[in-house]
Amino acid sequence: MQQTGSVPNNIILIGFMGCGKSTVGRELHRLLGYPLVDMDALIEERAGMPITRIFADDGETKFRDMESSLLEELAQARQSGHIIATGGGVVGRPQNRELLQRLGYVVWLCAPASVILNRTRNSGERPLLLTEDPATRIHKLLAEREPWYAETAHLKVDTAGLSSREIAAGILESARYFFADPTQCKQR
User: Fold this and answer.
1) What is the pLDDT of residue 2?
2) How far lies 161's CA from each of 62, 112, 140, 149, 153, in Å?
């Protein structure tokens, strides 16, 4: 893909936990050869601890600060040719939503709450779902975040029932149009 205009030639994956950001990011990396920046993994690496421990020791606000700082760093680097897989809550801050759009082509990966619950059910690595009623928590967080995902994304893709290869192929096709003329491509 060629970069035109001032939009960096990056593909940014946003969406709720369990919607496939990391998996689709790896597939896009495989297909394009672009470096993959998995924001959650990078934060864990830099902090020297898993996200669940950051939440437990320092709280969600500290994690969100780390997330915002990393996003700002990525935006300031002005690099192109990357796949960026974000954390599910990165859209919670208005400045993050703006930075995401400045970074390149933003794709919202989504899935129904029932699919998300099934995909995250056995994971102890989702601190926001370590509750008595994860289904209710998922519904509450989705209701809060969906308007932010919609505001930020150039493209929305429902990942339920699709393979990571199918999702990546659709994203690449759409991204080609976006990078050909980013002013014309606000898809939802």
Assistant:
1) 40
2) 35, 11, 23, 21, 21
